[in-house]
């Protein structure tokens, strides 16, 4: 497996992992005793977006002759209540950190892809 292929697989797995955390947030905020439907809707859209990103990277990997390697997804939190911050603020701060992680990983992927593209004649 090439470094570029491994990097794309890493991004696929990050996107799926973040989607999974957002899915846990949907379940939490949709509960009858939490009932923050707007947050549940927000995290549903976020989860679908991250999954869509993973699927696009999978399509790209396959088109370029690479092999998609999915990893196990770590079980996310199922409770997002926080004594000091409250559940909504805590979840949004977690979501922000996940978005920063995803962006950082994308930036790293781009940096690793540039040498691969140069070798293969892509600009």
TrEMBL record:
It comes from the Eukaryota. CDD domains: Euk_Ferritin. Oligomer of 24 subunits. There are two types of subunits: L (light) chain and H (heavy) chain. The major chain can be light or heavy, depending on the species and tissue type. The functional molecule forms a roughly spherical shell with a diameter of 12 nm and contains a central cavity into which the insoluble mineral iron core is deposited. Pfam families: Ferritin. Belongs to the ferritin family. Gene3D superfamilies: 1.20.1260.10. One of its GO terms (biological process) is intracellular iron ion homeostasis. GO terms for cellular component: cytoplasm. GO terms for molecular function: ferric iron binding; ferrous iron binding; ferroxidase activity. It catalyses: 4 Fe(2+) + O2 + 4 H(+) = 4 Fe(3+) + 2 H2O. Keywords: Iron, Iron storage, Metal-binding, Oxidoreductase, Transit peptide. Its EC number is 1.16.3.1. Residues 1-123 form the Ferritin-like diiron domain. This is Ferritin. Fe cation binds at residues 15, 50, 53, 99. Stores iron in a soluble, non-toxic, readily available form. Important for iron homeostasis. Iron is taken up in the ferrous form and deposited as ferric hydroxides after oxidation. Stores iron in a soluble, non-toxic, readily available form. Important for iron homeostasis. Has ferroxidase activity. Iron is taken up in the ferrous form and deposited as ferric hydroxides after oxidation.
């Amino acid at each position: 497996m090439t470094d570029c292929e491994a990097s794309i697989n890493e991004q696929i797995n990050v996107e799926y992992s973040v989607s999974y955390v957002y899915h846990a947030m949907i379940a939490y905020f949709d509960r009858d005793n939490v009932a923050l439907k707007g947050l549940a809707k927000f995290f549903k859209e976020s989860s679908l977006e991250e999954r869509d990103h993973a699927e696009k990277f999978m399509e790209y990997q396959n088109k370029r002759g690479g092999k998609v390697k999915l990893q196990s997804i770590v079980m996310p939190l199922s409770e997002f209540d926080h004594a000091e911050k409250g559940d909504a603020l805590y979840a949004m701060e977690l979501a922000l950190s996940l978005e920063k992680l995803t962006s950082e990983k994308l930036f790293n992927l781009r940096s690793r892809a540039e040498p691969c593209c140069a070798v293969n004649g892509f600009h």
